[in-house]
C-alpha cells in the first residue's frame, strides 16, 4: 500500500523549463567573492579559484548574477576596471560589518574578472546595475563598456583592458530590493526610476548592439506592491514596447531556526516556509496578468534559499550546509517546474560560502554541499518540457501554528525530453520512510529502461557537510520495481530521488 500516489500526466505540457531556472547569485559579501571565487582581495596575489570554477563548470550552471544584492546599489563599476593597482579601495556599505579582514572593497574583482569567470565556468552573466545611488548614465555606460563593438572611448577601454570583442551580456537588472536597501522607494517611485533607466538603456540597446538585452526589474513578495509598480510602468508612452522583460522576487526562509539545535517540528516548519514559494510566484504572476496584459513578463526569483539565525552580517552570512536545507531546495525546484510557464530564471543565494551556498571553501579545500547534489540530480529537467504531475500524499499539521498550515510529506515534478521522462520525488518527512507509487500516463513501463538516483538515504536532516565528509552525500541507486504498471519504491526519511524512464 502506497503512502503517496504520484501521477505524471505525460501529455499535459506546462512549458519548457528554462535552464536559467537553475541559476546562481554571488555578491561582494563575506567570503563569497574573495576567498570563494577569487583567491585573494590583494592586488598582488590575484586569481580565480580553479577548484570552485571546476565545481561550477561540472554543474553546468546556466547563469550567474553579480555583484549584488544590496552591494549592487552602492557599486560603481568603473572602480573595478583597469589596472589592479590603480583601482580605488572603497567601503562596503552594506556588508562592512562582516569579518574584520573584509570590511572594505578592494575592487580587485571587477567586471572583467567576473565576465572572465563566466567564460571559464561556461555560464551567462547577469549584471545588476546601480539604481539606488547610481545614475542612468552610469548603467548605460556599463552596458556600452561590456557590449559595444564600435569605436567609442568605453569600447576602447574594454579593449585596453584585454577584451577585444564585446562580451554580449544579455541579462541586466535595474536595481535590487529598491523597496529596501536599494533606496527605500515606494513602488511608484521605483517604477519612475526604472522608467528613467530603461529609457536610456533600452534606446541604447536598440541602436548599438546586435543582440537583444533582457531588462529585469526588482519586485517584491507582495501582490499589491507589484501591481502598483506595474501600473506606474504602464504610464510609459511607449506602452507595451517599454523595455521590461522580467520582474523579480526574493524569498528567504528558515529565519527562526538554527538547524543543529532545531527539532523535527521545526524541520516541518522550515519546509512549509520553503513551499510558500508557490504562493509568491502565483501572486507575482497574478499581478503581471492583471496589469501587464499586453506584454510578456517573466517571473525571476533572483534570491532564494535558507537564511538561518547563524548567518549574520558579523560572520559574512555563513551557516552550515545541511541535508535539510538541500531537501528544501529540492522542494522549491519542483515548484519551479510546476510554474515553468511563468518562471524564467532563479538564482539561489549565494554561490560560495554565503547563506545556502552550493560550494564551501576553507583555505585550499573546496567541496560540494548537499544542495549542490540536489542541483545535480535535478539537472536533467533543464531545457525539458515540464508536464503536469499530481501528488496524493499524507500531510502533517504544523505544531502551534497560528495559520494551521500543513506539510505535504511527498512532493514531485516531471519533465519530458524526447523519449525520456524524468521524475523527481522528495520525501519531506524527516521522521519516516514513504512508499511511492508513480504512474506515468501512456507509458508501458515494462518496455522501458529505468535509471534512478537517491540522495541522503543514510543521513540525518541536520547532518552538516565539511571537507572530510562531503563525498558521503553523493547519489546512490534507488530500488524500484514495476507493479501493475506503476513504479513502486520506498523513499527513506528526508531523501530526494531522480527517476529517468526511457
Ligand atoms: O543575499 C543577502 C542579501 O539579501 C542581499 O544583499 C539582499 O538583496 C537581500 O536582502
From TrEMBL:
Its EC number is 3.2.1.55. Residues 302-495 form the Alpha-L-arabinofuranosidase C-terminal domain. It comes from the Archaea. It catalyses: Hydrolysis of terminal non-reducing alpha-L-arabinofuranoside residues in alpha-L-arabinosides. Keywords: Carbohydrate metabolism, Glycosidase, Hydrolase. One of its GO terms (molecular function) is alpha-L-arabinofuranosidase activity. InterPro entries: Alpha-L-AF_C, ASD1_cat, GH, Glyco_hydro_b. The keyword ATP-binding does not apply. It holds the Pfam family ASD1_dom. Belongs to the glycosyl hydrolase 51 family. This is non-reducing end alpha-L-arabinofuranosidase.
Amino acid at each position: 500500500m502506497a503512502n503517496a500516489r504520484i501521477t505524471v500526466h505525460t501529455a499535459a505540457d506546462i512549458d519548457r523549463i528554462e535552464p536559467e531556472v537553475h541559476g546562481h547569485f554571488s555578491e561582494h559579501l563575506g567570503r563569497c567573492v574573495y576567498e570563494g571565487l577569487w583567491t585573494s582581495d590583494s592586488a598582488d596575489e590575484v586569481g580565480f579559484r580553479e577548484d570552485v570554477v571546476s565545481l561550477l563548470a561540472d554543474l553546468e550552471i546556466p547563469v550567474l548574477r553579480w555583484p549584488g544584492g544590496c552591494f549592487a546599489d552602492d557599486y560603481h563599476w568603473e572602480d573595478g576596471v583597469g589596472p589592479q593597482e590603480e583601482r580605488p579601495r572603497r567601503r562596503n556599505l552594506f556588508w562592512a560589518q562582516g569579518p574584520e579582514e573584509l570590511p572594505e572593497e578592494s575592487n580587485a574583482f571587477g567586471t572583467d574578472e567576473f565576465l572572465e569567470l563566466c567564460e571559464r565556468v561556461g555560464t551567462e552573466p547577469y549584471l545588476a546595475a546601480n539604481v539606488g545611488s547610481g545614475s542612468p548614465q552610469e548603467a548605460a555606460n556599463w552596458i556600452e563598456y561590456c557590449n559595444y563593438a564600435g569605436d567609442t572611448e568605453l569600447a576602447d577601454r574594454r579593449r585596453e583592458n584585454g577584451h577585444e570583442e564585446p562580451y554580449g551580456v544579455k541579462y541586466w537588472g535595474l536595481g535590487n530590493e529598491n523597496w529596501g536597501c536599494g533606496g527605500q522607494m515606494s513602488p511608484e517611485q521605483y517604477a519612475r526610476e526604472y522608467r528613467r533607466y530603461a529609457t536610456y538603456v533600452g534606446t541604447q540597446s536598440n541602436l548599438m548592439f546586435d543582440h537583444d538585452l533582457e531588462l529585469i526589474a526588482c519586485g517584491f513578495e507582495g501582490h499589491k506592491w507589484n501591481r502598483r509598480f506595474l501600473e506606474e510602468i504602464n504610464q510609459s508612452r511607449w506602452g507595451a514596447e517599454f523595455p521590461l522583460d522580467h520582474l523579480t522576487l526574493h524569498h528567504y526562509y528558515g529565519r527562526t531556526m538554527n538547524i543543529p539545535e532545531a527539532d523535527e517540528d521545526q524541520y516541518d516548519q522550515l519546509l512549509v516556509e520553503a513551499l510558500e514559494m508557490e504562493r509568491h510566484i502565483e501572486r507575482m504572476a497574478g499581478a503581471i496578468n492583471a496589469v501587464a496584459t499586453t506584454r510578456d513578463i517573466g517571473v525571476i526569483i533572483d534570491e532564494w534559499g535558507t537564511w538561518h539565525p547563524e548567518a549574520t552580517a558579523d560572520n559574512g552570512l555563513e551557516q552550515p550546509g545541511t541535508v535539510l536545507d538541500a531537501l528544501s531546495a529540492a522542494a522549491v525546484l519542483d515548484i519551479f517546474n510546476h510554474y515553468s510557464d511563468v518562471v524564467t530564471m532563479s538564482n539561489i543565494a549565494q554561490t560560495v560560502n554565503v547563506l545556502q551556498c552550493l560550494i564551501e571553501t576553507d583555505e585550499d579545500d573546496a567541496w560540494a554541499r548537499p544542495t549542490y547534489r540536489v542541483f545535480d540530480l535535478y539537472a536533467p529537467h533543464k531545457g525539458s518540457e515540464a508536464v503536469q504531475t499530481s501528488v496524493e500524499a499524507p500531510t502533517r499539521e504544523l505544531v502551534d501554528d497560528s495559520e494551521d498550515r500543513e506539510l505535504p510529506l511527498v512532493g514531485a515534478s516531471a519533465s519530458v525530453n524526447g523519449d525520456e521522462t524524468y521524475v523527481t520525488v522528495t520525501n519531506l518527512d524527516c521522521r519516516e520512510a514513504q512508499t511511492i507509487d508513480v504512474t506515468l500516463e501512456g507509458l508501458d513501463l515494462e518496455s522501458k529502461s529505468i535509471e534512478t538516483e537517491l540522495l541522503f538515504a543514510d543521513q540525518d536532516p541536520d547532518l552538516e557537510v565539511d571537507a572530510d565528509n562531503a563525498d558521503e552525500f553523493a547519489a546512490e541507486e534507488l530500488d524500484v520495481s514495476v507493479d501493475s504498471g506503476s513504479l513502486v519504491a520506498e523513499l527513506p526519511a528526508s531523501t530526494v530521488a531522480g527517476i529517468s524512464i526511457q
